[in-house]
Every structure is written in structure tokens, then in C-alpha cells.
């Protein structure tokens, strides 16, 4: 918040709902049903029986220009538990469709997410506030509209961790325990248990997904599709011009798609940089703004394995594994292109943007990998060095985050075996043969560094700005969840704080940067996650 701006009380928030005035909606009953002709359905959140505030993001309070003391009020808790509405809130769930695991799945929609309204700050920012886990909507299909504490905590923590890493993401304002139980069969294997329920308040300029456009295309609602695309461009991409007053709206639509491709490419490069695996990259989980959205069975690479997927549902096909993310993002963009084709009527610009995705991704990925290695720029021949680096990482179980962080300290005198030891998981893999490969690689890497000519301190500082020391390792989140399920929320606070400065050394907090302990290797929540949340 701008220091000259007076912090606000909760009741001072300026909350609007321009989308509800401009897009066709639905005021039907809150029953599971198809909603043709509608972009959203009005629906009230369900009240939580006995809510408690578990955590709040100080940075999100600040972004909303709220006084931090607001978070300690009863009104804040009640609002973000779903028990009361503020002036200007007009709660609604969005209608969207999606391709799930490569198949068109028809209408999906916000089955347990409810938009409350858009906060417009004095600084001109727009934040849609959305409750996740506050009950059923017309889009709940067979499910209950609720969320459990473990998944809500994972979403709350990871949204903020991602933001502090500098990666585009939806945000999280608050995490509230509802005081009610929610039944889940975590691994769909006939072992349901009652878990504590929770509600997260998410925030983003918009939660629109590829699936919001696909559903109207699938229904042949070209007019609605156009209204939605025009609205999206006018509000979220105003620099492209307003197609509604243009002589050539199709050109603006095409430029918009090109920008969506570009943002998506940049987002995936960021994920690859920090070892993030989304886990369910269905088209309904792809943000039109290029944000990371819908934190479900996501995970962070520990040992470098491009085929690793955190999602047990994906274990056989590995469609959503780490290394497939660029390809899947492009596949999803193809579905979006198909959906908006009727507005443009010419495949060429769409095709060019899809090809642009591949070239932009490759270019950015190469530059990113060069920066991870501490090179001042990617040069011809570096492709081979990068490939060899990744091959080396895969040869023995090597923690990706630790490897790159430690590499920053590889000056001319360092002994690489001693330096990199904390990154290796299994001692018995460290054979003489492996060390021959390592020594060869180090020789080659050092030669490249000396050609680059940057002094050691400058290189280390640059590497430490792109190679985080602290990421939300799967087991760290699980330890915090285990404690929270017993009513101890201290670890949530600590994790939130550690993840605030992921690129900094944080003396005394080295444990949070250490490789995954062996007990977590096969534990549910640490190495295996399901969509059940
Ligand atoms: P996801 O895989 O979490 O992105 O969810 C896919 C679809 O299922 C979305 O339309 C969600 O809104 C819906 N969904 C997931 N969990 C629930 C739930 N507990 N209750 C209602 N709808 C849900
Ligand atoms: Mg989703």
C-alpha cells in the first residue's frame, strides 16, 4: 500500500460487480443443473457453524489497503467464513467447461468457489474476492461444495509462496476453519474419514479460465462467447484496445490470443525454473491471465525427475508430470484457439500464436536455464551444457533446488563433491562412475564460466536471485497440516514467514531448506496426493 494512503476498515472497501452487469447471468435455484446462456449463477455462501481464523496474508491485507487490525475482528472472520456479506458483495459462481485429462468434460463450473465481488482500491487495483469451500452451487455436480483443511492449507500457503517467488498466481487472503467435519476418501480406496473443513478466501483480478470460453463455444453460444471475450479484453487487457468500438474486432481478438499464449509460456518457464508441478493442468485450471490457479495435488520436485507427477490419479499416464507441462500448456492453448475460432474466422493468426508459444517458450527456457547456471546470457553451444546438466541431475537422485543453490558457491577452489553433497539423496548411488561424470561436467562448466568472465560474487548473487533457497517442499506443508489437524497452527505462520523471502539466506532456518527426510519418501501428502480435497 502507498504509505500516504490511510488504511481502511473492512466496511470501507469499495466493492463492485461490473461483470454481473455486462455478462448474461442466471438467477435460478441453487440446485445442480445445466445453465445454458449464462456466464454465472447467483448463489449465497453457506454459513460455517463455528469458524476460527487460522491464518491471514499480511501482504494481501496490504494489497486491499486494509488496516492489519481488521483481521482480528469478528466481522472479518464472519465475512471470510461465508457467514456475512459486505455492502456491494453480490455472490456468484462462474459457469465454465473444460477438457479434463484430454477429454471434453462438458459443464464444470465453480462447484465450491463463490465470487463475492471485486474490490477496487484507491490505487486502482482490482481484486475479485472468492471463497473456496463455502458450499454447493449449481455447478457442484456430485460433490459437496466443501474443502478440507489439508487442501485449503496447501492452497493458502502455496499461493503466497508463489507470489513471493515472483511467479504469477492467484492469491490468498485468509484461511478459516469452519468447525465442521467433511468426509473424504483421500485415495478413493474405500477408507473415508471425517476431516476438518476450511474456507480459503482467494483473490485475483479475475478467475476466468480457458474453460469459461470453451463452454460457450461448445454450446454454440457465439454471441455470449463474443460478449465474454470483449469484456475480458476491455477489463483485463485494456492496452489491446476495446473490440466493442473497433472496426476490426477480430484483429484485437487475435492479438489477445497471442498475449494469452505469451503469458502462458512465461508462466510455465517460471514453473520449470523452481520445480513446480501443477498436477492437474486441465483447461478449467488454466487462467486466462496466465496465473497459477487451482492448487490441488500440486508438488515441488525434490530429486530431479522430469517424469514425476504429484497426482496419484495421473500416475499411470503422467500427462501432468513436470517435464510435460510445456506440451500440455500448448495442448490447452489449442483448445482455447478452437473455442475462439468462430470470433476470428481465420485459422492463420491463431496458428501463428500457437507456433509463437513454442518459440517463445524455448527462447525463455534457454535464457532461464542459463541464468540458473549463472551465465550472463545463453549462447550457442549452451544447449548442450544444459542438457548435460539435466542428465547429471537425473543420474543419481539429486535435489534440484539444492543443487542450483549450492552451485552458486562453486568458486575455483571449491571441491564439487563436498559442495554438492547435501543435494544427493542416496549415498549408495554415488559410485566412482558417477563421480567421473560429475568431474567432467564440472570441468566443462568451469570452462564456460571462465569464458563468461563474470566475477564469482556477481555470479553467485545473480544465481541466488533465480534459484530459490526455500520452496514449499511437499513434506513441509504436510508437517504443518498434521499439526493444524491437531489444532496447532503455529507452523502455518512459520511457513508463511519462511516463504516470504525464498531467495534470501535465513540464518537459523536452514532446516526448511534441507532435502526431504527419508520418512517422507513414500508418505501420503508428501510424495502422493490425490484430487480429493
Ligand atoms: P478441480 O479438479 O479441483 O479443478 O475441480 C474440477 C471441478 O470439480 C470444478 O468444477 C470444481 O468446482 C469441482 N469440484 C471439485 N471439488 C468439489 C467439491 N468438493 N464440491 C463441488 N465441486 C467440486
Ligand atoms: Mg479447478
Structure description:
It is a single chain. 47% of the residues are buried. The chain is 40% helix and 13% strand. It folds into 3 domains: 10-207, no CATH class; 211-371, no CATH class; 375-453, no CATH class. The chain is of the alpha+beta class. The protein is globular, with a radius of gyration of 24 Å. The strands form 4 sheets. Strands 1-8-9-11-10-4 form a 6-stranded antiparallel β-sheet. Helix 5 (210-218) runs antiparallel to helix 6, helix 5 (210-218) crosses helix 8 and helix 7 (249-274) runs antiparallel to helix 8. The two termini are 34 Å apart. Adenosine monophosphate binds at residues 108-112, 139-140, 143-146, 280, 284-285, 294, 296, 531.
Provide keyphrases for this structure.
three-stranded mixed sheet, 16 helices, 533 residues, 3 domains, binds adenosine monophosphate, alpha+beta, six-stranded antiparallel sheet, binds magnesium ion, 13% strand, 40% helix
- Unique ligands: adenosine monophosphate, magnesium ion
Strand content: 5-15%
How many β-strand runs?
A: 13
- On the 0 to 100 scale, the average pLDDT is 97
Rounded radius of gyration (Å): 24 Å
Low-confidence runs: none
Structural class: alpha+beta
Number of helices: 16
Q: Helix coverage percent of residues?
A: 25-40%
Shape: globular
The total number of structural domains is 3
Order of helices and strands: EHEEEHHEEEEEHEEHHHEEHHHHHHHHH
The largest sheet has its strands arranged as 1-8-9-11-10-4
Give the termini separation. Answer: 34 Å
What characterizes the major β-sheet? 6 strands, antiparallel
Amino acid at each position: 500500500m502507498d504509505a500516504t494512503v490511510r488504511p481502511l476498515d473492512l466496511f470501507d472497501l469499495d466493492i463492485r460487480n461490473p461483470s454481473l452487469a455486462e455478462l448474461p447471468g442466471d438467477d435460478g435455484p441453487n440446485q445442480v443443473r445445466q445453465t445454458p446462456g449464462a456466464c454465472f449463477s447467483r448463489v449465497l455462501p453457506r454459513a460455517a457453524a463455528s469458524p476460527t481464523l487460522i491464518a491471514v496474508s499480511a501482504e494481501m491485507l496490504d494489497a486491499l489497503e486494509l488496516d492489519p487490525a481488521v483481521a482480528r475482528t469478528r466481522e472479518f472472520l464472519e465475512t471470510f467464513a461465508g457467514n456475512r456479506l459486505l455492502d456491494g458483495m453480490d455472490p456468484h459462481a462462474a459457469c465454465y467447461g473444460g477438457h479434463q485429462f484430454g477429454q471434453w468434460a462438458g459443464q464444470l463450473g465453480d462447484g465450491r468457489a463463490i465470487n463475492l465481488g471485486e474490490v477496487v482500491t484507491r490505487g486502482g487495483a482490482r481484486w475479485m474476492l472468492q471463497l473456496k469451500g463455502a458450499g454447493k452451487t449449481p455447478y457442484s455436480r456430485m460433490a459437496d461444495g466443501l474443502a478440507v483443511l489439508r487442501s485449503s492449507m496447501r492452497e493458502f500457503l502455496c499461493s503466497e509462496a508463489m507470489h513471493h517467488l515472483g511467479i504469477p498466481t492467484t492469491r490468498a487472503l485468509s484461511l478459516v476453519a469452519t468447525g465442521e467435519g467433511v468426509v473424504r476418501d483421500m485415495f478413493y480406496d474405500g477408507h473415508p474419514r471425517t476431516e476438518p473443513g476450511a474456507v480459503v478466501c482467494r483473490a485475483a483480478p479475475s478467475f476466468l479460465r480457458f474453460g469459461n470460453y470453451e463452454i460457450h463455444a461448445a454450446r454454440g453460444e457465439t454471441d455470449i462467447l463474443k460478449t465474454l471475450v470483449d469484456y475480458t479484453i476491455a477489463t483485463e487487457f485494456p492496452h489491446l484496445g476495446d473490440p466493442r468500438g473497433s472496426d476490426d474486432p477480430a484483429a484485437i481478438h487475435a492479438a489477445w490470443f497471442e498475449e494469452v499464449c505469451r503469458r502462458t509460456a512465461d508462466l510455465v518457464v517460471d514453473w520449470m525454473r523452481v520445480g513446480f508441478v501443477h498436477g492437474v493442468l486441465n483447461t478449467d485450471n488454466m487462467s486466462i491471465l496466465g496465473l497459477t490457479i487451482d492448487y490441488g495435488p500440486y508438488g515441488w520436485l525434490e530429486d530431479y525427475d522430469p517424469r514425476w507427477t504429484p497426482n496419484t490419479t495421473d500416475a499411470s499416464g503422467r500427462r501432468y508430470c513436470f517435464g510435460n507441462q510445456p506440451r500440455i500448456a500448448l495442448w490447452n492453448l489449442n483448445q482455447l484457439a478452437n473455442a475462439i475460432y468462430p470470433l476470428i474466422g481465420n485459422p492463420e493468426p491463431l496458428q501463428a500464436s500457437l507456433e509463437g508459444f513454442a518459440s517463445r517458450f524455448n527462447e525463455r527456457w534457454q535464457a532461464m536455464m542459463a541464468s540458473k547456471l549463472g551465465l550472463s546470457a545463453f549462447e550457442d553451444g549452451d544447449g548442450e551444457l544444459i542438457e548435460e546438466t539435466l542428465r547429471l541431475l537425473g543420474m543419481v537422485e539429486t535435489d534440484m533446488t539444492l543443487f542450483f543453490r549450492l552451485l552458486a558457491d562453486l568458486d575455483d577452489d571449491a571441491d564439487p563433491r563436498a559442495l554438492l553433497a547435501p543435494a544427493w539423496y542416496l549415498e549408495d548411488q554415488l559410485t566412482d562412475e558417477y563421480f567421473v561424470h560429475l568431474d567432467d561436467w564440472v570441468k566443462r562448466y568451469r570452462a564456460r564460466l571462465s569464458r563468461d568472465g563474470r566475477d564469482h560474487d556477481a555470479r553467485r548473487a545473480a544465481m541466488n536471485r533465480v534459484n530459490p533457497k526455500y520452496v514449499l517442499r511437499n513434506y513441509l506443508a504436510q508437517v504443518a497440516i498434521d499439526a493444524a489437524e491437531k489444532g496447532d497452527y503455529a507452523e502455518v505462520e512459520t511457513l508463511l514467514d519462511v516463504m516470504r523471502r525464498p531467495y534470501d539466506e535465513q540464518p537459523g532456518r536452514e532446516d526448511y531448506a534441507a532435502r526431504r527426510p527419508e520418512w517422507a519418501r513414500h508418505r501420503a501428502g508428501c510424495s502422493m496426493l490425490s484430487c480429493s480435497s
